[in-house]
Specification:
Lambda Exonuclease, Chain A; 8 helices; globular; binds iron/sulfur cluster
């Protein structure tokens, strides 16, 4: 008996056809990323690598686990009100859509809390919520009119968690919406955004994982402003 190739089976299960994204329809999970990279992903879609698909799937598995924790009778002080729920938000002539992870009720005081779940390789290195994750949460709080939220990090290996509360900040939510507007303008006018992530030391790490770095450096060669 020859056992099947189980790795190949996982890859086949996770394989998705490359999808052309539609200008005018945007996703909160992307907006904290480098705007130029998001712009490229609309203009020059590329298939997601199998390894990346596995990372996404692990995120889904972790999220399903956390939803079970929230739903469990063993945590009677919490009620899971909504899980993985879709939303659409119209801005000017475009749409922001996606799925919001969890909305829970804290029975002690009847308050509602939005929970944005993120899986991480090592919780030990998480000391604060990453700005793109906070941006996502601020946008969701704005859309749902829920004014308290947390970014909840879950270690993929140990299931240990760390969480970072955030209160709704209208200014921050507006800044996120302004980024969508900038992306929409650049796409509809066919203008390449600046090499945003290369401009700041804090975001330059994004370029190491960017599938479009060759294009980006060809369009904007290295300089003092854009190393
Ligand atoms: S290489 Fe860096 S600056 Fe250029 S598109 Fe990618 S993430 Fe953005």
């Amino acid at each position: 008996m020859n056992p099947p190739d189980f790795n190949a089976m996982v890859d086949a299960y996770l394989k998705k056809e490359k999808k052309q994204k539609e200008t005018g329809r945007y996703y909160p999970s992307e907006i904290g990323s480098c705007l130029r990279k998001v712009w490229y992903s609309y203009k020059f879609p590329i298939e997601t690598e199998p390894e990346q698909m596995k990372v996404f799937e692990m995120g889904n598995i972790i999220h399903e686990f956390i939803a079970k924790v929230f739903k469990s009778d063993k945590n009677p002080h919490i009620e899971l009100l909504k899980e993985e729920f879709p939303f659409r938000h119209e801005v000017d002539d475009f749409t922001i859509s996606g799925r919001i992870d969890d909305l829970i009720l804290l029975k002690a005081d009847g308050s509602q809390l939005l929970v944005e779940v993120k899986s991480t390789k090592s919780i030990a290195y998480v000391s604060e919520a990453s700005p793109p994750h906070v941006a996502q949460l601020q946008l969701y709080m704005h859309i749902l009119n829920v004014h308290d939220g947390v970014v909840l990090y879950v270690d993929k290996g140990t299931l240990q968690t760390k969480w970072f509360p955030a209160s709704y900040d209208a200014k921050k939510a507006e800044q996120v919406i302004a980024r969508f507007k900038a992306l929409h303008r650049c796409l509809t006018e066919d203008v390449l955004p600046i090499a945003e992530a290369r401009k700041s030391e804090k975001t330059r790490w994004m370029c190491r994982f960017c599938e479009y770095s060759d294009r980006c450096y060809a369009a904007t060669p290295k300089s003092e402003e854009f190393p």
